[in-house]
Design goal:
about 350 residues; alpha/beta; Rossmann fold; Dehydroquinate synthase-like, alpha domain; 2 domains; seven-stranded mixed beta sheet; two-stranded antiparallel ribbon; binds nicotinamide-adenine-dinucleotide; binds magnesium ion
Length: about 350
């Protein structure tokens, strides 16, 4: 097992990474002593891992550990489902000492975290992420929330977990497509500010696709360390944290333009990072070699390297104009200045953006 710390003064917390951690009560013990805990999970994850986690927690917890099993899907990450969590907690009279435990992917982590941020004005929670994407991204950093009919993740709060427990064995049951989607965010960390990690990924990606435990544990460690460093510098995204959105403005346009649920988020981010790299090349900020290496690695992760057919350059621009990162009417993008060097900038040539969109859309 391997442990990292997210360094946020009194809100600091450990991330434990290793095989079989769902079966180890030790990490949970101190946080569960003398308080009631509720596991929140979904219908897909519950049959796989809920009994194991319940048994583990029973060893360090007085009384039964209760669980709420939600339906599976991004479409349930909304205020109606959130209200089901509140009702479950209120009916059982959980007080401010309650501990919520999110067992599942990013959807479960985000909604459980937001329930914890708001139930009785805030209770503690633990993240037990079970998808690669949630292990390297959503479980770390304290962004929690739900979707609104008018936009994704529009209702939320910053609320850091007290602990993150990553059992890499849970990835054995993850569908291939979800594994690749998580790899998009892993590659993102290399591109943003970790050139050495990018080189490591170029060499070791096949081991990740083959789900070799040591390789996965290392990639998760490095990704969490990279994210934790950025979050420690800028917890509430007033600056540097925006770099974590590399590929995401283009990616959101793909998700939105296709209708959410057609492409996985990580797939859209994969194509989006190539679009960002292409634009960076147009600006002469990176060279052909950087662009080719980026494209190869994303392709090797079995991710799409171009946006879907039918989404026009015009439509892209229209959707991107409504992006959260538009400040005072100016579109800001995360662009590359090399592999492992990125900037958030509004200072790109609109003609270059047109070239990229015209070159890559079909
Ligand atoms: P997800 O939670 O929908 O999980 C993907 C699928 O895998 C689901 O069907 C899930 O039930 C299933 N699953 C989970 N663990 C499994 C396992 N071990 N074996 C088999 N199947 C398993 O999707 P995700 O990609 O984990 O997360 C996406 C969500 O995360 C989005 O809602 C996104 O907005 C959010 N997100 C949040 C942050 C943040 O900082 N808070 C960052 C990135 C993404
Ligand atoms: Mg993302």
């Amino acid at each position: 097992m391997d442990t990292l710390t997210v360094d946020l003064a009194e809100r600091s917390y450990p991330i434990h990474i290793g095989r079989g951690l769902l079966k180890e009560p030790g990490h949970f013990e101190a946080l569960l002593k003398g308080r009631r805990a509720v596991i929140v999970t979904n219908e897909t994850v519950a049959p796989l891992y809920l009994d194991t986690l319940k048994q583990t927690l029973a060893a360090v917890h007085d009384g039964p550990v209760e669980a709420l099993i939600l339906p599976d899907g991004e479409q349930y990450k909304n205020v109606d489902t959130l209200n089901r969590i509140y009702t479950f907690l209120l009916e059982r009279r959980l007080d401010r000492s309650a501990m919520l435990i999110a067992l599942g992917g990013g959807v479960i982590g985000d909604i459980t975290g937001f329930a914890a941020a708001t139930y009785l004005r805030g209770v503690d929670f633990i993240q037990v992420p079970t998808t690669l994407l949630s292990q390297v991204d959503s479980s770390v950093g304290g962004k929690t929330g739900v979707n609104h009919a008018l936009g994704k993740n529009m209702i939320g709060a910053f609320h850091q977990p007290r602990l993150v427990v990553i059992d890499t064995d849970t990835l054995n049951t993850l569908p291939d497509r979800e594994l690749s989607a998580g790899l998009a965010e892993v590659i993102k960390y290399g591109l943003i500010d970790d050139a050495d990690f990018f080189v490591w990924l170029e060499e070791h990606l096949p081991r990740l696709l083959a789900r070799e435990p040591e390789a996965l544990a290392w990639a998760i460690h490095r990704s969490c360390a990279d994210k934790a460093r950025v979050v420690a510098q800028d917890e509430r995204e007033s600056g540097r944290r925006a770099l974590l959105n590399l590929g995401h403005t283009f990616g959101h346009a793909i998700e939105n333009g296709m209708g959410y649920g057609q492409w996985l988020h990580g797939e859209a981010v994969g194509a989006g990072m190539i679009m960002a790299a292409h634009l960076s090349r147009q600006m002469h900020w990176i060279d052909d070699d950087d662009l080719n290496r980026t494209t190869h690695l994303i392709q090797a992760a079995r991710l799409p390297v171009a946006p879907p057919t039918g989404l026009s350059a015009e439509r892209f621009k229209q959707i991107m104009a409504g992006d959260k990162k538009v400040l005072q009417g100016q579109l800001r993008l995360v662009l590359l200045q090399g592999i492992g060097t990125s900037v958030v900038t509004a200072d790109f040539d609109p003609g270059a953006l047109d070239n990229t969109l015209n070159a890559l859309t079909r």
